[in-house]
Amino acid sequence: MIEALPLDPIARPVLVPVIVAALEHRPPCQIPLLVRLAKRSMDLAFALSGMVIALWLFPLIALAIRIDSRGPIFYRQRRAGALRERDPHGRCAFFEFDMMKFRTMRVDAEKLTGAVLAAENDPRVTRVGRFLRKSRLDELPQIWNVLKGEMALVGPRPERPELFENLSLAIPFFEERMRDCKPGITGLSQISLGYSGHAPTGSAVSAFEGLLTNPFKLDLADGASADDMRMKLLFDLAYVIALEKFSTFVAVEFLVIVKTPWVMARGLGR
Fold first, then answer.
1. Does residue 201 lie in a domain region?
2. Which of 18, 29, 191, 203 measures 20 to 30 Å from 73, CA to CA?
């Protein structure tokens, strides 16, 4: 039955074990030491080289942000990192860190709403910010987070701590995407679904979008942020499973790294 699923040929070797693990209710395994060492070495190598290559862009982006809108150049935001365990009250416990980005929104973006997920065509995004998000250039300062060991080059995107718990309550196994895994600048879900989390038209995974979005068919729930996260979760769990073996780790890691510049060039962010 699983072999008959309309999965993308490249993603099939990774997604099939994830589906089998979910059906067997098998928890994810620990990441082997060899994978950890190789992944950290790759993170440092790519982060250092990326910093050197992209350094000339920093003053240009900073100038564009300064001309476009008032406020700071960089934006520091608290994010949830790798999952530790649940506390005695059943709430998720995770490592927290300050993630760096180029500012893409107005300085008062969350004054009235509090912490909320960015929406498609979000009116809070500035003109320069819209370009930075589409090209993913707003993520460049996170190279510093990678060098500090708070993030990895490839991994699931880190969420706000206050949103992480709510999403974990709304989406089964959502917290498992961060178990024993650092968040990343880019990842399998980012290159497969784009920034919004919607499945590309005609893609293999689009066949499951109807099952994953508003699964309980609640009134007025269509288009909820949790729907985008359910789509991303499918690929995030696939990536975590890929870390269990060195061979699948290398294959998926290089797939994401090679495809990320193509996603940036096409402007598939939002």
1. yes
2. 191
